[in-house]
From TrEMBL:
Residues 1-73, 90-167 form the RRM domain. GO terms for molecular function: RNA binding. It comes from the Eukaryota. It comes from Henneguya salminicola. Transmembrane segments: none annotated. This is Squamous cell carcinoma antigen recognized by T-cells 3 (Trinotate prediction).
Length: 213
């Protein structure tokens, strides 16, 4: 994914052919025939697929890094390369990461902690770091231990900030005061002075008022 919309299937084929034998390249297009920015590359052997996955965001077509993830031919068997369940306590959110820090550097740091599973640095489409990442552990206990030890670690002169990655609780719906659908209308006082009020006057009231003016 993250393929430039002007990229062709031949360009994708040329990029991945250095890995091994390709049996098929499919660039996904919309009904008008324009690229949707992602596609599929089918290799001859599983070993070549494994090599391709190692090139995730290391290959570039034009100026864009290519995101590479495994996919099964069976849609029901398809899983994301990096997937974090909602409400998990086993994942750390790492913020305030210096823009020069790479995903591989984060892996080298956090793989030293017990229970480390995977790291993912968030990036923009051009491959530049967005300054935060997710680190997954096997248990919430190991995630908590890593948080206590790694929080405040200085990388490239900047201290990182770690938190247990849990989505914020949904706030209660905001109570709103219903708006009146009636427009303010003229009301007549005994002294023939006028003022605004929200109680609606009848047509007869208006006729009586204007006859007395």
């Amino acid at each position: 994914s993250n393929v430039d919309f002007n990229t062709t299937e031949d360009q994708i084929n040329d990029t991945f052919s250095s890995i091994g034998s390709i049996s098929k390249v499919t660039l996904v297009r919309n009904r008008q025939g324009f690229s949707k920015g992602y596609g599929y590359v089918q290799f001859v052997s599983p070993e070549e697929v494994a090599k391709a996955l190692e090139k995730d965001r290391k290959f570039k077509i034009g100026t864009r890094p290519i995101y590479i993830s495994p996919i099964s031919a069976d849609k029901e068997q398809r899983v994301k390369k990096f997937h974090i369940e909602k409400n998990t306590d086993c994942c750390l959110y790492v913020a305030k990461i210096h823009h020069k820090i790479s995903e591989q550097e984060l892996i080298e740091i956090f793989k030293l902690y017990p229970g480390y599973k995977e790291a993912r640095l968030a990036t923009y489409r051009n491959g530049n770091s967005r300054g935060f990442a997710y680190i997954e552990f096997d248990t919430k206990e190991n995630a908590a231990k890593a948080l206590l030890k790694a929080d405040g670690t200085v990388l490239c002169g900047q201290a990182i900030s770690l938190h247990i990655s849990k989505p914020p609780k949904k706030s209660n719906p905001i109570e709103t005061i219903p708006k009146t659908t009636r427009r303010p209308v003229l009301s007549v006082s005994s002294s023939n002075e006028t003022k605004l009020r929200t109680q609606k006057l009848s047509n007869d009231d208006f006729r009586k008022y204007f006859k007395n003016i």
